[in-house]
Design a protein that fits this description.
Length: 728
């Protein structure tokens, strides 16, 4: 296979080797003179000169590779774009405004409709104008579906150079002891490699001879600041998103999209994309014509801790679907398209297919942890015109756990492919493996025969079936949302089982500790956990004993007898050995339940007290208002009554004041009436508010009491159950 990118260290080593050979030439000339054959080695001087010049050139190339420095116009030239207009300041502003107008007009369109509108807009621009636009806003142009791919490649190369310069400067200010040094250096090294050429090996169609040339790498997507930051201490930078193309995407008859799994980031992208170079080449390393491979790291991949959470797959599935729909405007209409998904990427692909991704000819799932709880067969995708394949290599731990649903390698309606030569979770793209050969046959087509397998878990790895049962047991007992929370804690325990570092009895304590941490001891009680583990350990003992007996030449009945004895002994011994372990774990459960019981009572009691205090405060406030309003009414009545008595007496003594006194009495009575109306309404409203608050707060108090009582009864039952299990 051709090198993914030129290696400056390799060039330095080669230069050093050439220097060493040149250094031997004076000795050879001296020996020739001694032997009297100087004329026979007259060409040594020219060879020495050539070796020296070649070594110097190799070192020059290594220096360039180590510190690439390219202007935006150099990036344009790498992909055949003119630079004259782009060199003029502000030349691309007009075309960017036009592009923004197109995007605004189609902001509610489908991904394909927006991409087609972008493609149509770029078709109105000359190559000079396209180049100027790429220089003006490379981050927009480089990641915009519908833009001609060579323009995207150039724009992203400009962005990569800018990012490389900035991160190199940041790295220069870090010491080697800084926690962020290694990850930052890995990113800088990766960015440098993106700018360096790669070696392409192919058969020249004109001469039909093997040819190797250096070509620039082609990045269809580049966003160094996208996504989450897995570990802020080890890296100040987000994981990023990036996609690389091998081949001519716009003319290829066969196009594939590769979807990666967890822990893939910008800093380790070369490890992922190298599989794309393997896939695009034949067994001799020659890149195939009419073929394009897109290594798509276009979603925020999980780390180990959140790999059991499907949330990033949901988002990634929508992103993959949108990308596939939009990029179709740049493909040949009759291109044969394939998806090759690995690990968590199979879940992402499943979500994309459920999101509406139907225009795909072949889908291959490798090392899948499951395709979601609702996918149990290929038929669940409702895609009769798409061929589905599955690969599960021996000792692929991720497939065995089924952390996200049924393993597609077990679907009855899927085509399961041979993986001979591949072992574990990460060797599917290794050279000289049947897994890689089968993928090439799917991609290239042409009637090449696929190879198949139907191996069982027991045939692939002793203990795999038992680990799958243990994981299924825990999934059945624990709610899905808690499984997601527990995933990071359980993963190393399960991996220890699969890697042979732990036995089933070794994991009882760690699993119990994880369950205790997440308050799941009443979901998975100690005796149930130990019983399940004991059963699985005895099943494993049966298989191991049967296999060992057969390897020594025993007939089936003898092997079965020995295996049954081994299984029975294992179960019996474990029942005795784990009895004290169960009791200790029951003490943990009892302690935990007792703590939860009193904690619940305390919380419920505080809530009742708070509700009661709130009700008392309301009643006191409203009672004060009623008293105040009643006092105002009483005062008005007393004042008005006195006024009326006075006015009547004055009229009797001074009849001439009758009309004036009658007016005063009328006004006083009206004022009293107004006070009655005003304050009386206040009293009614205040009393209504007090009643409402009494009903509301009283209801809350009743509900709090009932809820606290129910929780106390439930947890009290758990406490009693813990006591009974511990005693008996």
């Amino acid at each position: 296979m051709a090198l993914v990118y030129a290696d400056p260290d390799m060039l330095d080593r080669l230069a050093k080797s050439l220097d060493a050979r040149a250094g031997e030439i004076p000795h050879l000339k001296s020996r020739a003179s001694t032997l009297g054959v100087t004329a026979n080695v007259s060409g040594l001087a020219a060879i020495a000169t050539w070796l020296g010049e070649t070594a110097s050139d190799l070192r020059r190339r290594a220096r360039i590779l180590r510190a690439p420095s390219e202007s935006p116009f150099g990036s344009l030239s790498e992909f055949g774009l003119p630079t004259s207009l782009a060199r003029k300041p502000g030349a691309g502003d007009e075309f960017e405004s036009g592009l923004q107008a197109v995007l605004g007009a189609h902001k509610n369109g489908t991904p394909k409709e927006r991409a087609q509108a972008v493609k149509d807009y770029f078709a109105t621009l000359t190559p000079d104008e396209q180049a100027a636009l790429a220089v003006t806003n490379p981050s927009l142009v480089g990641n915009l579906d519908g833009v001609p791919v060579n323009v995207r490649f150039a724009a992203n190369r400009i962005s990569i150079q800018k990012e490389y310069n900035e991160e190199s400067e940041y790295l220069s200010n870090l010491t080697k002891n800084d926690p962020a040094f290694k990850r930052t250096k890995d990113r800088v090294d990766a960015l440098r490699s993106f700018l360096n050429p790669r070696v392409k090996k192919f058969t020249d169609p004109n001469t039909n001879r093997p040819t190797e040339v250096e070509v620039p790498r082609q990045f269809l997507v580049f966003d160094a600041h996208y996504g989450s930051t897995a570990d802020a201490k080890s890296s100040p930078f987000p994981d990023g998103r990036i996609a690389e193309v091998v081949g001519n995407l716009e003319t290829a008859k066969n196009v594939s999209f590769r979807v990666p799994g967890i822990t893939n980031r910008l800093d380790n992208f070369n490890g992922f994309t190298s599989g794309g170079y393997m896939l695009a080449s034949d067994a001799q390393g020659f890149e195939q014509p009419d073929t394009a491979v897109v290594s798509w790291l276009g979603y925020d991949t999980p780390e180990l801790g959140d790999s059991v959470d499907p949330a990033k797959a949901e988002v990634g599935g929508r992103q993959l679907n949108a990308f596939r729909q939009a990029i179709s405007v740049n493909l040949q209409p009759d291109a044969n398209t394939s998806i090759f998904a690995h690990s968590y990427g199979t879940l992402v692909t499943s979500k994309a297919l459920q999101d509406g991704l139907t225009n795909i000819d072949n889908v291959t799932f490798m090392g899948s942890p499951g395709l979601g709880p609702n996918i149990h067969a290929v038929a669940d995708f409702h895609m009769p015109n798409t061929k589905f394949y599955a690969m599960r290599a021996p000792e692929d731990m991720v497939s065995y756990t089924q952390g996200h649903g049924d393993d597609p390698a077990g679907f009855k309606d899927i085509i399961r492919l041979n993986t001979d030569g591949s072992t574990g979770h990460s060797q599917y793209y290794n050279p000289r493996t049947q897994s890689l050969e089968n993928m090439r046959r799917i991609l290239f087509g042409g009637g090449q025969s696929l190879t198949f397998t139907d191996t069982t878990l027991d045939e692939e790895m002793t203990g795999a079936a038992e680990v799958r049962k243990l994981v299924a047991f825990l999934h059945e007992k624990v709610p899905p949302e808690v499984v997601s929370e527990m995933g990071g804690d359980l993963d190393p325990i399960v991996q220890g089982l699969l890697n042979g570092r732990s036995t089933f009895t070794d994991v009882i304590g760690p699993i119990h500790a994880v369950l205790n941490k997440h308050n799941m001891l009443d979901r998975v009680k100690p005796d149930e956990l130990v019983g399940e583990v004991t059963t699985l350990a005895s099943e494993l003992a049966y298989k191991q004993a049967f296999k060992a007996a057969k390897e020594h030449g025993a007939p089936d009945w003898v092997a079965a007898t020995a295996a049954t004895t081994a299984a029975g002994s294992t179960k019996g011994l474990l029942s005795v050995a784990t009895w004290p372990v169960v009791k200790v774990m029951e003490l943990d459960r009892l302690q935990n339940n007792t703590r939860q019981l009193f904690s619940g009572l305390a919380v419920g009691g505080r809530q009742l007290f708070n509700d009661g205090a709130a009700l008392a405060g309301t009643l006191a406030h409203d009672g004060g208002r009623v008293l105040s309003d009643g006092t105002a009414i009483a005062g008005s009545v007393v004042n008005t009554g006195g006024r009326v008595v006075y006015e009547i007496g004055d009229t009797l003594i001074n009849p001439a004041h009758a009309f004036q006194n009658a007016g005063d009495i009328t006004r006083s009575l009206k004022a009293t009436k107004d006070t009655f109306v005003d304050k009386g309404a206040d009293i009614v409203n205040t009393v209504d508010h007090a009643v409402d608050q009494t009903v509301e707060q009283g209801g809350k108090m009743i509900n709090s009491g009932l809820d606290t009582g129910k929780k106390a009864l439930d947890k009290g039952g758990d406490v009693v159950d813990s006591v009974v299990n511990f005693v008996f």
